[in-house]
Amino acid sequence: MHKRVLFLKIVLSICFLAIIFRLGLIMFVEHHLYFARAKTQQLRKEEIIPKRGNIYDRKGRELAISLEKESLFIDPSSLRSDEKIRILKNYIKINIEQIKSYSEKNVRFLWLERKLDHEVAEKIKALKIEGLGFIPEGARFYPNGFLASHVIGFVNIDDQGIEGLEKQYDKYLRVEKSLKVVSVDAKGKRLSDGNLKDIKGNDIFITIDEGLQYIVEKYLEEAVRKWQASSGTVIMMDPFTGEILALANRPTYDPNNLKLIKNIGVIRNRALTDLYEPGSTFKIVTATAALEEGIVNLRTKFDCSQGYIEIWGKKIKDAHRNGVLTFEEVIQKSSNVGTIKIAMMLGKEKLYHYIKKFGFGEKTGIDLPGEVAGYVRPPNKWSGTSIGAIPIGQEVAVTPIQVLRAYAAIANGGYLVKPFVVSEIRSPEGKILYKAVIQRERIISEKTAKTMRDILKKVTQEGGTATQAKIDGNDVAGKTGTAQKYDPKTGRYSKDKFVSSFVGFIPADNPRIAMIVVIHDPKGAHYGGVVAAPVFKAISHEALAYLNVPRDDAKEKGLFVRLENETNRKVVVAKE
Q1: Does residue 381 sit in the same domain as residue 256?
Q2: Calpha distance 88→126 (Å, rounded)
Q3: pLDDT tens digit string along 130-142?
Q4: Distance between terminal CA atoms of the chain?
Q5: Does residue 101 form part of some domain?
Q6: Which of 71, 280, 386, 540 is catalytic?
Q7: Mean of all residue pLDDT scores within the chain
Q8: pLDDT per position as a tens digit, 238-247
Q9: Which range has the worst mean pLDDT, 25-34, 147-156, 223-232, 449-458?
Q10: Which of 119, 234, 393, 481 has the most CB atoms within 10 Å of its CB?
Q11: CA atoms of 198 and 178, how far apart (whole Å)
């Protein structure tokens, strides 16, 4: 009995020593191996779903935000029967044969549908089909649908900016994917979310005003439908700063439903990409140049009684026969004959110089993608008839934003401004990363600008071509344009295709907004004063009320005054 007890003690001692030895080995020699194994079992790396930065209007209202959606995938190698998979056809489009072919190749991952709606995802989860899985992904959402779609743009399935601000400022809005470490239990269930916060891109604040944008889009839509036009554009800008307050095109699209787009042309920002001959709206260049050079004054007279002028054998007519017109009346009545005579006094070299001064033939530099420079030929490439065509807005190719900028120079006292859309970029922590700087250059004198403002006011008054742009209580300054479209098939100007436009600013003496309206191929009427001017009036009437701009007669009583401060940004102040 004693020997058995002794033997048992020896065996137990050996076992105890072995355990002590093993523990010592684990604790001091193999510690790092077991620590690494425990870390692998208890911690798991997960991909952080980055959120794209938001886009806000000038008052902080959301125009583009990021949501989280789930994307559906399948492990084709786990497919035993396609019977259950076929049920998915009730919810998404799938290719059974493709899944089978991947299954035969032992492929372990295949996307079925990216960024599902929550309701659809929940219904598919309830099916409990083996081999299916979900991965959360960021999804872009535009709360206002069509509103300002050509400004905001959209992203692709991988959240990369494709059009508009989404493309132009993609590097600020988008953040790269990264990983975070989370704690899990023995069954792999998450215990904690790790110590990293969600990653989010920078937020962008833009000059667009959601309220003004809505007004612009409403009346542009009505006009395009009324005149059965092929397209239309309206841009509203602060003439002193270059801030774009609203920009809209028709046709348009909903960036939330890109699959519904049948014609890719609807996503084009026509305000910056579509060239056209501006017609009579271009006459301000000739008029301004003549005043600035001292070649004419308001009382200089021009004989337009023939109703036409012949340039190198080509007759250029007025829409209506006029008699002898003063310089002021030439612009007020939009006389082609009078404008060409002014241009001939000016000469082609000086005319071209002022065309370039007003920024035609070059990009405005607006911070949106796709802008084109337009086309203006230098004088050495003009034909014999060019001196008769160019002053009245033919043989030049411009964009709506270029024309609007030219009129803004008259509105603001002679400065050519650089239009812009983004005013600020802020980090997720609120730090300002970028702040827009107003850029402007004097191109004409204040005196010339004021004279032109007075002339353009008369265009909308009795005897002018744009009486339908007139608004009770506030003076409107502007100019109509009615341009025949060039038909490349015939080599002539079309007799039934026109571009109708009106561009101006209001209130005329203290402009709050400058705006251009361009309607392509209207049916039933084609004069700018009939088609485009009423659109300007309707938008302006509602916009001034929205902006709480007082009537001119109230300002005359000393209730309102407009000044510019040292930073060249205008401010509005009240006085008794």
Answers
A1: yes
A2: 12
A3: 777 777 777 899 9
A4: 119
A5: no
A6: 280
A7: 86
A8: 999 999 999 9
A9: 25-34
A10: 481
A11: 10
- What residue ranges in 312-402 does DSSP mark as E strands? 314-317, 324-326
- CATH number (domain holding residue 510): 3.40.710.10
Q: What is d(CA 517, CA 481) in angstroms, rounded to the nearest whole number? A: 10
Q: Average pLDDT, stretch 197-225?
A: 94
Q: What are 31's two structure tokens?
A: 């510690």
Among 159, 184, 206, give the residue marking a domain's end: 206
Return the structure tokens found at 561.
């005054």
Decide if 507 contacts 549 (C-beta within 8 A): yes
Q: What is the DSSP string of 232-298?
A: EEEEEE-TTT-BEEEEEEES---TT-GGG---GGGGS-HHHH--B--GGGGHHHHHHHHHHTTS--T
- Work out the number of other CB atoms within 10 angstroms of the CB of residue 464: 24
In the chain, the number of structural domains is 2
Asked, for residue 481, whether it belongs to a domain, the answer is: yes
- Residue 375 and residue 264 share a domain: yes
DSSP symbol at 88 = G
CB 425 within 8 A of CB 367: no
- Whether 445 sits among the annotated catalytic residues: the reply is no
Q: Are residues 445 and 535 in the same domain?
A: yes
In DSSP terms, which residues pair with 68 in a beta bridge? 138
475 and 356 within one domain: yes
Give residue 563's identity as a one-letter amino acid code. L
Q: Is residue 568 part of a domain?
A: yes
The tokens for 506 are: 């209001």
Confidence of residue 106 (pLDDT cuts 50, 70, 90): low
Shared domain for 113 and 51, answered yes or no, is: yes
Q: Evaluate whether 459 touches 453 at the Cβ level (below 8 Å).
A: no
Coil/strand/helix, residue 68: strand
**455 and 307 both lie in a single domain:** yes
The answer to whether position 358 is within a domain reads yes
Q: What is the mean pLDDT of the segment spanning 376-385? A: 95
Which one has a higher pLDDT value, 51 or 441?
441
pLDDT of residue 88: 72
Residues 130, 261 within the same domain: no
CATH of the domain at 53: 3.90.1310.10
pTM over 0.90: no
Per the structure, the complete domain to which residue 245 belongs is given by 210-420+438-573
Place of tokens 């361009």: 518
Of 179, 206, 233, at which residue does a domain stop? 206
Structure tokens at 193: 């979310």
Cα separation, 89 vs 109, in Å, equals 19
d(CA 338, CA 309): 9
